[in-house]
Structure formats: structure tokens, C-alpha cells
Amino acid sequence: MAKEKSKVTMKGYYGITFLIGLGFFTMGLMDPLYDTYIPIFLNRYIDSKGWIGIIMTLDNVFAICLIPIVSALSDRTRTRIGRRMPYIVSMLPMTAIAFGIIPFSVLSSLWALIISIFLLNVFKQSARGPVVALMPDIIPGELRSEANGVINTMGGIASIVGTIGLAQLMNVSINLPGRGATKEILAFPVASILVLISTILLFFFVKEKRENYESDTKEKGPTIRESLKIIFKADDRSAVLILISLCFWFIGYQGVLPFIGLYSTDILQTTSGTAALAAGMVGIAYAIFAIPSGIIAHRHGRKRTIRTALLLLSGILLAVFFHDPITTSLGLSVMAKQITFWILMFFFGMFWVSIITNSFPMLWQMATYSDMGIYTGLYYFFSQLASIIAPPITGGFIDIFGFRAIFLFAAVCMLIAFFIMSGVKRGEAVE
């Protein structure tokens, strides 16, 4: 009976899940371009990779506050268009505008670039929590791994569009007044237009569930402080262990990601337009394996799927660590080095999406309708904490030991997360 019910429900929810995925599409479109090119832009003014890593964390310092706060506020927001949508339709358009002006600020000064980065992240991180919390508001708990796979597929498609499609526009010259032909501009404003279109579609075609909204009006549930006490003082430490685990795997991920573009140009000798292809391989794997990873977790367990992916991911990172000396000793051409590196990044994305697709549903499974945003905010608090911790560390490693050290560091972080996850007892779809 349970099997029949799940099948019918999934048929009824695939369409709305794809539409909700438009919110993830906007983030997936901007994030790879941001992670690839912002360090390159900063490198025009700053030589030290450690300082670049520190500047890359400034936005996360604000995000670590904004995402949990705005997510929790959206839990208690009551408007005619819903509780998440007011934040989405106000913040995403501002995000698009701020994202589009970044390459123009680079032409002005370092401070103009830093200010534009700050504004972008204030708007983007304010929208991110409500965008993510919209899905578990609508999709039943037992189907959230599959649904998260669908919306991660949307994010993966956006990553492909950004890194393989729009990134090629960085090689296209446009004529700017007073500067003439200028490259490394066009991808950002074009991405902004796509974000605006996605926001309009999301607003008109995704409606928050009125029955949940209306039944929750009189009884809004515990306050933010009360909810946090319940989570962190519970006898079952599963939620806390998941949060600690995801902090470690994001430390590994965020320690590598901001420097992949520089690694590609400095070590693999790629052009600016192809520097984003490494992230593009991750996006392709996202698009292909997000839905299957949710289905696998539904059948074999979310915890088992995550731990297996963490173990395999640490192996891939070790392979990347040895990639440059091995390919050099074999006398492979520059193109062969690039292709083999992209293949490794594809496998990296395949196992990474298996973790991301199923970790959020494990937390959501422990939440109620009234505190869904709080759990979402905690997820982002710990992931953004990792974003603050990781880049300065790995930037320093690059300055001292060279680029390869960051891959070894990330592999160790994944193994630590693997062992911590062994203590998690809740969060499966059958609960």
C-alpha cells in the first residue's frame, strides 16, 4: 500500500517540483560563475591567494546571519501571497541587478568590486533560505529525497548553462564607452536576465499551500529561541550530528571550489572561457545524478547513501591530488591533462550531489511545518560557517604548499564527516 501511495503522489508532484526548482535554477546559474570568476577578478588587484580567500569569506560572514534569520522569519510571515514568496520576489530581482554589475565594478577599483560583492550576497542570501524552504512546505516528507533530486537537477542544468554556455561569453568583446573592446563582461548581465525570467515564472506558477497556511495562522508554533533549544538539547543528537557532518564536508568543498578557476588557468593552462569547465563538469553530474541519487536513497536509506558518497568522494579528491604529478610523469599533453581533470571533476560532482540531495531531507524529516525554515536556516548556518573557515585555510595552503594541498585537505574533511555521520539515527523517509 505504501508503495502504491508513493507512486501516485510522485506523479502528482513532479510538475510542481520542477517549477519550485526555478528558484534553485537562479542560484545554480550564479554560483558557479561567481566561484570561478570572482577570485580571478580579485587576482587583478591582489597577488596573495590567502588574502583572496579571506575576501571570498566576507560575504559568508553576512550570509551566516542572514540565511538563518530570514528563513526563520519566513516561518512566521503571513501575507496574501504566502510566507516564502514575499522574500523571493523582492530579493531575487535585486540579486540579479547586483550580479549583473559585478564585471563593471572590476573595471573601476578593488573597493568597487568588494562593495558589489557585498550587495550581491546581502540580496542573494536573503532569498536563498525562503527559496529552499518552499519545497518541503509543499512536498510530503517521504518524497523529499526524490524531490530534492529534481530541484538539484534544475540547479545542475543551471550550472551547465552558466559554466559551459555563459562562460564562453567571457571571451566575447563588447564595446564600452571610454574603454573600447572589453572582454570578461557579458556572462554576468546575461545571467541576470535569466534570473529575472525565472523569478517571474516562479511567482506566477508556484502557489503556497493554502490549507497549511490557514491552519497555521492561529497557532504559529514555538518561537525561534524555543525551537533552537528543542533541537540542541534533545536526547537524540541526530540533528546536531548531521549539522556537524555537513560543516566538515562543506569545509572540504568550499576549500576547493573558490580556487578551481585559478587552478585551471595557472596549472592546467586553460583560457578564461574554459576555466569554468571544471565547475561545469560538476554541474553536468548534478543534472544527471541528482534524481537517481534521491531514488537510491529512498530505496537503500539516506544515511547509507551519504556515507558511501563521502567515502568515494575522499577517494576522488586523493586522485585529483596525484593528478598533476602523474600526468606530468606520463608526458601527457596540456589538453590531455585538462580532459582527465574534467573527468575527475565529473565523478566529484556525481558523489557530491548524492550528499547534497539527501542531507537536506534528513533534516526536514525531523522538522514540522512551523519550524521548517529554522531547520533550513541551521543547514545554511553550518554550511556558511564552513565557507568562512575554509577559503583562508586553503588559500594559505596554496601560498605555502602549492595548489595540490587543497585536495588532500578536502579528502580528510570528507573522511571526518563520514565517521561523524555514523552516529545519526533519524532522518530516513520511512519515519
Helix and strand layout, with pairings?
Elements: H1 2-43, H2 49-75, H3 85-106, H4 110-138, H5 144-165, E1 174-176, E2 180-182, H6 187-205, H7 210-215, H8 224-232, H9 238-256, H10 260-266, H11 277-300, H12 302-329, H13 334-365, H14 372-401, H15 405-420
Antiparallel strand pairs: 1-2
Helix pairs in contact: 1-2, 1-3, 1-4, 1-5, 1-6, 2-4, 2-14, 3-4, 3-6, 4-14, 5-11, 5-13, 9-14, 9-15, 11-12, 11-13, 12-13, 12-15
What's this, in brief?
By secondary structure, this protein is mainly α.
Question: How does this model look, in words?
Answer:
The protein is mainly alpha-helical and 431 residues long. Helix content is 77%, strand content 1%. It has helices spanning 2-43, 49-75, 85-106, 110-138, 144-165, 187-205, 210-215, 224-232, 238-256, 260-266, 277-300, 302-329, 334-365, 372-401, 405-420; strands at residues 174-176, 180-182. It has a two-stranded antiparallel ribbon with strand order 1-2.
Which characteristics define this entry?
single chain; 431 residues; Growth Hormone, Chain: A; two-stranded antiparallel sheet; 15 helices
